[in-house]
# Entry
Amino acid sequence: MDPKDYLPHIAYDSVIIGFSGDELHILIMEYHNTGLFALPGGFVHTTENLNDAVSRGLKERTGLANIYLEQFYTFGNAKRNKPAPMKKILEANGIGPEDNHWLLDRFISVAYYALINYKNVIPKPDALSDSCKWYSIDKLPKLIFDHADIVAKAIETLRDNLDRKLVGMNLLPKKFTMKELQQVYEAILGTKLRRTTFQRTMLASDILVRHEKQYSGGAHKAPFLYSFKKQKKI
Amino acid sequence: MDPKDYLPHIAYDSVIIGFSGDELHILIMEYHNTGLFALPGGFVHTTENLNDAVSRGLKERTGLANIYLEQFYTFGNAKRNKPAPMKKILEANGIGPEDNHWLLDRFISVAYYALINYKNVIPKPDALSDSCKWYSIDKLPKLIFDHADIVAKAIETLRDNLDRKLVGMNLLPKKFTMKELQQVYEAILGTKLRRTTFQRTMLASDILVRHEKQYSGGAHKAPFLYSFKKQKKI
DNA sequence: TTTATATTGTCTCAATTTGTGACAATATAA
DNA sequence: TTATATTGTCACAAATTGAGACAATATAAA
# Structure
């Protein structure tokens, strides 16, 4: 990592959100031999679009590609970077503790979130990281810097956007039941929703296609499967 | 402006929105002897919080202080800065056309919008600028770089936030009539609203205090004056 | 002084949307 | 065969919104 290849003082962090069962999960990386946990992030090449850098970095660090990413806030407090944990990470990677390493500088971080289908994805850690794992949103490990704030703001934004953007689309497999869709909404909002009202609203909203009934594994009437209609271009 | 005082490649731009009569207006600066128009913006000191830099810069460039600013997007395309207009601005300020002046570099820009009471404010241009004027949102001059995109995104965000944040609060004088409030909403949304429904909704929302009737200048029944309740802290 | 005009505040009723429970249908387990 | 859990749909009540009507009233016009 030659500092000349990257824009100084500029970073990004991504909050990768997946859904499993009835909980939201977030992808967290652990750095080798440090016990330090962080959001997957990275830096921007000198002639690279910011958005492209984020896609590229996510691919490099987790193996995930073609993911819908949404920028939600830029964190710019002067003291958001603590030198101590970064030194620890550098040392664990064989980089000496010179006080003026560029990664110890102050960084502004542009934060993105992504919604992906948990089941399709087995994230793979990169060379820098020990592991790259899903954590339930209620049981995140302690994160470095202000990454906990970044996660909180991501969830807040997601909640606000829930009725305006088709977030369910990205968190579920192609075909899903009405119950699964409702569970996604409930996990994001953090509240229970009324079944009949939810079903009526979703059916009326004209965003779902109904398919044949599922061969259900449950001891009850088999539910329909649904998928999202292709988005109309406006 | 010593480049060592500022974070390289990082800028901010602010979309200052005021309301007058029935239109939204935006504050635009014109650079001396160039015919170039731009949003008021600036740079971040090396140890300064991003948010503080934006407040400071706005004060320096327009004389406006204590203004509620909301960050809404970070523009990071590699080619969003065009060297030609920036060279013109530098030359008009007596700075030679060296090809590697730091202001000709690529910049990522964090964009903020602010809502202010048009009537209370007479903006003053700074040394760099010829003028600092309000322009109706429908009649903006051609802006440099991607500043037209930044304005468009600001309005889009404002519209989305209209029902969740108390935007009217900042655009009107302390006391105002129901009609004025409705005009703010209409200007932001770009649509007409039904008078009776709007009035009923606003009164039911429990955010307004009703005061004595206005000594009206109009040839009709005098309207009540309203102000916003103090926000409860949650 | 009287009348006309424009806007305001409020009310009413219809139309629509949402809340809530009921109930039959049905896939599996007992 | 019966019991159980969940699903899809309906019916009705409650709440919200749409749309117009109308009296009140501050100024302008006569």
Notes: Chain A has a mean pLDDT of 90. Residues 177-179, 195-196, 199-200, 216, 218-224 of chain A lie near DNA strand D (CB under 10 Å from a C1').
